[in-house]
User: Which sequence fits this backbone?
């Protein structure tokens, strides 16, 4: 059978729809049902410690739903029993139904260097930490009887932290986030519903099959590399499994014009008549976290510059792509000044081929919605980037009006 060929524009529309940008934002009150629908679309929410604007897992919900109650979201993520944290696409919030699927990764975890040293130098210490969690949990590192001293200012964790992180990675404990974003560790059956914890874990191949089909559904369309990356799977292992899935009709082999590698389409993927979606996107949003895929789909070369020296940054420290009607049209460097109750727009850059008169009004509305959502009273535009002055005028006019 001849392989179906799609245009890149069709692939982009498929991807946007699969990621939840094919329908307008809800106009009424946002509740748990909306959170569930977004999570069903994206599959997981990546966590990250950077808090210059807002924690990364909050922003994808805002991008798809608009302003919502973050306290209600916290209650859902922590107390509902519907999500758990594990290494999905990096540290991630994942639906509990996938807990057995990730057991293969927990079972295959090997102690890393600091953990091996801890096992050698302090025999029984890790088991004692596990005992404390079982008896007294949930616990933070500070709650341990003998957490030890940090080995350095950044990644020099104390022995207790190394022990808890190893127990977490190997699945013997799980965790959820405290209000200050630190992990609180507990036994899995006290966080994940016991009925799910007791479910038999699929073997590695079956887990890969499930996660690759999931990735195809969440991406809509993708290469082997795209689909393997969604849950950080080993690409050489994923390739023959995807071929088997294609032979069974669970994914559909396709070619995309301009793509160097073959792709797979999810059978339920739709091709909307036009690209849709307007939103500021977290650097860790699942639509844009695969930078090669973003460049392929949107012609948008995106690199986060948090770890780039300030004088070498091109677009800014915490830059959010701006999606307008299904295209990435601008880059906006944002910071929340919580004490001053200001949304600081540190830089704004227009993408080549796009016009400021079209972009600025939509970006103004999105910034105003974000400021309100974050309980910030003022938007301050720095004079950096080719959109800055027209955006500043637009913000000023909107407040005057």
Assistant:
């Amino acid at each position: 059978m001849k392989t179906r060929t799609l245009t890149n524009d069709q692939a982009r529309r498929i991807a946007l729809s699969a990621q939840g940008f094919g329908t307008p934002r809800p106009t009424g009150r946002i509740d748990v049902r909306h959170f569930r629908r977004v999570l069903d679309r994206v599959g997981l929410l990546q966590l990250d410690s950077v808090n210059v604007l807002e924690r990364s897992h909050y922003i994808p919900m805002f991008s798809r739903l608009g302003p919502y109650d973050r306290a209600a979201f916290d209650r859902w993520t922590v107390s509902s029993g519907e999500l758990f944290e594990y290494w999905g696409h990096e540290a991630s919030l994942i639906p509990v139904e996938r807990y057995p699927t990730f057991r293969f990764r927990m079972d295959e975890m090997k102690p890393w260097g600091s953990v091996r040293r801890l096992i050698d130098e302090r025999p029984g210490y890790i088991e004692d930490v596990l005992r404390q969690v079982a008896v007294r949990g949930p616990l933070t590192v500070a709650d341990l009887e003998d957490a030890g001293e940090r080995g350095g200012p950044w990644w020099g964790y104390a022995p207790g932290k190394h022990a808890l992180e190893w127990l977490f990675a190997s699945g013997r404990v799980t965790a959820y986030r405290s209000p200050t974003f630190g992990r609180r560790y507990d036994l899995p059956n006290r966080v994940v519903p016991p009925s799910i914890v007791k479910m038999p874990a699929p073997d590695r191949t079956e887990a890969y099959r499930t996660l690759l089909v999931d990735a195809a559904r969440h991406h809509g369309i993708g290469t082997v590399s795209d689909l393997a990356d969604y849950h950080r799977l080993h690409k050489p292992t994923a390739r023959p499994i995807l071929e088997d899935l294609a032979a069974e009709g669970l994914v559909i082999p396709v070619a995309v014009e301009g793509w160097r590698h073959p792709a797979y389409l999810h059978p339920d993927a739709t091709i909307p008549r036009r690209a849709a979606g307007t939103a500021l996107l977290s650097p860790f949003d699942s639509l844009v976290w695969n930078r090669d895929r973003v460049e392929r789909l949107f012609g948008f070369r995106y690199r986060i510059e948090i770890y780039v020296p300030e004088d070498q940054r091109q677009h800014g420290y915490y830059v959010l792509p701006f999606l307008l009607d299904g295209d990435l049209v601008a880059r906006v460097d944002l910071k929340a000044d919580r004490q001053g109750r200001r949304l600081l727009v540190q830089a704004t850059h227009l993408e080549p081929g796009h016009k400021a008169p079209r972009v600025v009004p939509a970006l103004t509305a999105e910034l105003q919605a974000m400021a309100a959502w974050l309980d910030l009273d003022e938007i301050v535009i720095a004079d950096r980037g080719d959109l800055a002055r027209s955006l500043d005028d637009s913000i000023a006019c909107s407040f005057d009006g």
Notes: The mean pLDDT is 94. The two ends are 60 Å apart (CA to CA).
